[in-house]
Amino acid sequence: MKTNLSTDTNTQKVILFNLDRYWLALPVAAVLKVVNFPSHFRAALHQMGVVHLGDTQDNLDTPAKAIALFNLEQYLGDRPNSTKGNFLMVARLSDRQLAGIPIDEPPSLLPIPSTAIRPLATTSRQTPLLNLVSHVAVLPAEQGSIEVFLLDLDKMAASLS
Per-residue b/e over 73-92, b at no fewer than 16 CB within 10 Å? Predict the structure, then answer.
């Protein structure tokens, strides 16, 4: 199972973001950039499932290209759609596949101790979202602990195919 996590033996650096009640993370090397996601893009996106990046409107220094939208909220099941998607996190899912993930707040860089990362048991995958997860890290927090679910890039890429 490919996770694309850093090979540093002490910590794994991830990009952390929140979706509903879940803390999700991607390997830092997979996240290319986070951009503002204007409302006129969001409206078209829900109809087409594709977003155009790299033109003069979004101020990216790349040629214009269309990338797939990866709306993680659709994997939450029967929950109402609550993500505003004010930001778009552009991630490389595979050598040839980029995806834009709408998120409400800017993500954070988080080093996770390697000793805190464990494979997620198949029996723990009770929601469609957790089927995209390969590992979990339980980290101390002010009030108890939080679970950080590490998304599996291969599973995400396969779900777009």
Answer: bebbeeeeeebebebbbbbb
Helix (H) or strand (E) holding 99: strand 98-103
* 46 three-class SS: helix
- Contact criterion met (CB below 8 Å) for 73 and 127: no
Every domain of the chain and the residues it spans: 11-160
Per residue in 67-108, pLDDT (tens digit) is 888 889 888 876 656 567 789 999 999 888 899 999 999 999
Give the tens place of pLDDT for each residue, 116-131.
Answer: 999 998 776 678 898 9
pTM: 0.81
Provide the terminal-to-terminal Cα distance of the chain, rounded to the nearest Å: 18
